[in-house]
């Protein structure tokens, strides 16, 4: 691309150079896997008979290799609203596959937990490592050597990263992600936030809070705030792994069904059996990873992807770190204001032009790579259009200008001149700061700290009035090796109340917040984590901490050199947490992706 921004070009070139050996090894492995992939007719009769015994009307086609056989990996359950629509997808996709001479089988399922349900609960300590379990489940499903392509059915927080990590180890095959879309808009986000803060202050009852929440999360489909799930959908588009414009079309609509049909047809067309082979290993390259990062920054996406994106890249032999994200953030403008960064949700974002508008602006400004291999078009320009139905025919059209400049703006007139995340670092380690949701006058906080080991204790101190002052709240021993790095989003309402009372407030933690982290300045994912002697383990109540996104600093004036690390709280038992001890013990740092599976696998 001739007009590529020089910083984007420099970061891309640096990623290519430092990934040279690992990327070569990965691609060589994929080439070997493609060469040795067994022909289904070369399997023993017993092997093959087992594989198509349940295929009913597709038995003969699979037996004789009449066409490509597509693996459906589904994260369906009907507790998670975003995944509830997937129950109907496999039967439909089998019909769509037959239309083009292919077959499809549900190769396997993966767990799909909802962070909205486990938020602030014991089960949240399983959340991050559910990503590794999902990757492993994907590998098990694909281990039967019966398939020519992968249809990946998943949307939410750890599920898309887990599916992609697992699928990348079978990257000699093509893959298409098939979303199901967001639920319709519920109550206004400001009203929801107001009731949450009133409840935190004891001014609203539990019944009033539940009524508010159920008007927000009210039907099948993805939650409508721009958190990790919807950031996942944006990144899959920026990497070219969806059908163009598929992310935010509502479930159960004719357009959604047409997009699912098109995804199935397209997957059948790009297998090695045809003349347009597009293996996942070649689609997810260094440029595609940079596009995902740029999309994340330009839309103020979830902070969780400062962990997930390096892990996904690593599964493809690509080395991405927070320095790369910070440097990209310095030149990528903020084009979108979607709740919690703005007042409108992803439905308003989609109606205003959505991802197609963002892709077009990024390409025109030279901030994204056009020349990547996508599943849905010749290059990324196909993703600057939006899908429509012309009668019964699915087609795409140019997006045009923004339909709402309070939601979407051009790169020439952005909401902020730089992206939604910054790296902060100093004698307390390295951490991420999401600037897009925080007013600029709050980007710097310097105050005495109050140190906690459990988020429940923060809530108790707030209720007791102990935090009614300028304060930096430190919540430590929340890293991947300590307790699985749960999200601490439950802290947002009380800290927001303190900020609204006029105090200077910040959070510093080696844990996560989430894509829903809001208006309070936060230094999160702090690494090295407290367990093992990280700097947060040396802090004491009253130490003065300075957090500044403007300068990129995270430091204390206290002398930490003579202090002994605080003792780690006893490991929690129950809710299956003891089963995940292996994952915690072998996890690497947040900046590397906080994965035990990738670390133990030598990736």
UniProtKB/TrEMBL annotation:
Cofactor binding, per record: Binds 1 [4Fe-4S] cluster.
EC top class named in words: lyase
A GO term, aspect molecular function: metal ion binding
Domain Dihydroxy-acid/6-phosphogluconate dehydratase N-terminal, first and last residues per copy: 68-380
Binding, [4Fe-4S] cluster: 156, 223
Listed cofactors: [4Fe-4S] cluster
Biochemical pathway: Carbohydrate metabolism; Entner-Doudoroff pathway
Role according to the record: Catalyzes the dehydration of 6-phospho-D-gluconate to 2-dehydro-3-deoxy-6-phospho-D-gluconate.
Protein name as annotated: Phosphogluconate dehydratase
Organism per entry: Altericroceibacterium endophyticum
């Amino acid at each position: 691309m001739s007009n590529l921004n020089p910083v984007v070009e420099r970061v891309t070139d640096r990623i290519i150079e430092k990934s040279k050996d690992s990327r070569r090894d990965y691609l060589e492995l994929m080439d070997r896997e493609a060469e040795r992939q067994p022909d289904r007719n070369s399997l023993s009769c017993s092997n093959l008979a087992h594989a198509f015994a349940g295929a009913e009307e597709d038995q003969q086609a699979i037996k004789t290799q009449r066409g490509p056989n597509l693996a459906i990996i589904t994260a369906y359950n009907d507790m998670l609203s975003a995944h509830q629509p997937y129950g109907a997808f496999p039967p439909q996709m089998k019909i769509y596959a037959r239309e083009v001479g292919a077959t499809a089988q549900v190769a396997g399922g993966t767990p799909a937990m909802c962070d909205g349900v486990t938020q602030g609960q014991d089960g949240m300590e399983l959340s991050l490592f559910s990503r590794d379990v999902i990757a492993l489940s994907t590998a098990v499903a694909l281990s039967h050597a019966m398939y020519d392509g992968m249809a990946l059915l998943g949307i939410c927080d750890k599920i898309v990263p887990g599916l992609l990590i697992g699928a990348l180890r079978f990257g000699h095959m093509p893959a298409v992600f098939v979303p199901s879309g967001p639920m319709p808009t519920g109550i206004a986000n400001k009203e929801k936030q107001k009731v949450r803060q009133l409840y935190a202050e004891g001014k609203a009852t539990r019944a009033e809070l539940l009524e508010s929440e159920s008007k927000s999360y009210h039907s099948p489909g993805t939650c409508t705030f721009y958190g990790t799930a919807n950031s996942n959908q944006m990144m899959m588009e920026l990497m070219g792994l969806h059908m163009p414009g598929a992310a935010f079309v509502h479930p159960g609509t004719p357009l959604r069904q047409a997009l699912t049909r098109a995804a199935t047809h397209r997957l059948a067309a790009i297998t090695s059996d045809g003349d347009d082979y597009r293996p996942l290993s070649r689609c997810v390259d260094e440029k595609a990873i940079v596009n995902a990062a740029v999309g994340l920054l330009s839309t103020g996406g979830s902070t969780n992807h400062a962990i997930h994106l390096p892990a996904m890249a690593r599964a493809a032999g690509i080395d991405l770190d927070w320095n790369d994200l910070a440097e990209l953030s310095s030149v990528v403008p903020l084009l979108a204001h979607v709740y919690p960064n703005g007042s409108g949700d992803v439905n308003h974002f989609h109606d205003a032009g959505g991802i197609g508008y963002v892709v077009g602006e990024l390409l025109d400004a030279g901030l994204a790579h056009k020349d990547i291999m996508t599943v849905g078009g010749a290059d990324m320009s196909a993703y600057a259009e939006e899908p429509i139905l012309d009668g019964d025919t699915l087609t795409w059209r140019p997006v045009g200008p923004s339909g709402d400049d309070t939601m979407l703006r051009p790169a020439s007139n952005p909401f902020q001149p730089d992206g939604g995340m910054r790296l902060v670092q100093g004698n307390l380690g390295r951490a991420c700061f999401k600037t897009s949701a925080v007013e600029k006058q709050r980007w710097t906080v310097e105050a005495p700290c109050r140190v906690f080991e459990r988020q429940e204790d923060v809530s108790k101190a707030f209720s007791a009035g102990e935090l009614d002052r300028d304060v930096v709240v430190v919540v430590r021993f929340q890293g991947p090796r300590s307790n699985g790095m749960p999200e601490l989003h439950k802290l947002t309402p009380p800290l927001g109340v303190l900020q609204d009372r006029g105090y200077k407030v910040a959070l510093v933690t080696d844990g996560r917040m989430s894509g829903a982290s809001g208006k309070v300045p936060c230094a999160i994912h702090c690494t090295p984590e407290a367990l093992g002697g990280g700097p947060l383990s040396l802090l004491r109540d009253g130490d003065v901490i300075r957090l500044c996104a403007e300068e990129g600093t995270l430091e204390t004036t206290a002398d930490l050199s003579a202090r002994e690390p605080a003792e780690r709280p006893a490991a929690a038992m129950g809710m299956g947490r003891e089963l995940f001890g292996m994952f915690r013990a072998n996890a690497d740092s947040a900046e590397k992706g906080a994965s035990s599976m990738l670390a133990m696998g030598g990736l």
